[in-house]
Amino acid sequence: MNSEENHKPQNYYVPASSIWPLVGAIALFIIAIGAATTVRFASSDENNVGLPILFFGISILLFMLFCWFRDVIKESMQGLYSKQLSHSFKLGMLWFIFSEVMFFVALFGVLFYLRNLSIPWLGGEGNNIMTHSVLWADFIPRWPLTETPSGVQTQAMSWYGLPLINTAILVTSSITLHYAHHALLKNHRKLLTAFLTVTVLLGFTFLFFQAEEYIHAYQELALRFDSGVYGNTFYLLTGFHGMHVTLGVIMLTIMLFRTMADHFTPNEHFAFAASAWYWHFVDVVWIILFITVYIL
Predict the structure, then answer these.
(1) CATH assignment at residue 200
(2) pLDDT value at position 43?
(3) Which of 1, 42, 73, 293 stands the most exposed, by the fewest C-beta atoms within 10 Å?
(4) Residue 213 sits in which domain range?
């Protein structure tokens, strides 16, 4: 019998103190330093010393995730989680997704401010004619900005091609994940494994095409970190979304392995459900991003 089907304890299980939150905080700190340094030297001819720091931080983070997930899975399979704790898990995941929603709201707010306020002001709209004359007299208020004050020319990323393909891939992955969840509720194990495998493969395919898109943007469109505010916002929004997709793929891959190990039942599968919620959230964010960054 699956150990998660055992009688749940009525007390509120309190796990022992864990070192993994501290390790995760250190990893994120190293990643922040590495990312900032990488961006700092991205446009220079010097060796980018930020990349080794960045990958070192990512390695620590992945190690932390593996160990922490291992401990939580072990506790779950031992039947230590009560219904009250399961309810707390659900609330915690919902609050986490809400915090991620607010994070992307802030990023989309930056894009809105630039396109609808800053650029018209710099173009002399309203009472800002002197701002236009003094700061950039030849400035044309239009989006995307493909020219910087220093005269660097770039090209805007089109919405068709790889971005459109990636949109279709991510939407399809949400559909396959929905059917995988439905198969789990019906206890159809083969369909569950098949649909979840397809979802994971689609997630990795999305990341592959996004890497191809970045190479195309950097080499052929001259779209870089020093390409002005358009290049900055493009990489900021798509890059952070790519990080969330990466985390989602890791979560779904773990769910696939756990599914093959027969860890989930129709009544006990919070980890699967939480991963599905997160992936659907990532999908919705991409649709909004695709419209606001690539099309409008």
Answers:
(1) 1.20.120.80
(2) 65
(3) 1
(4) 83-295
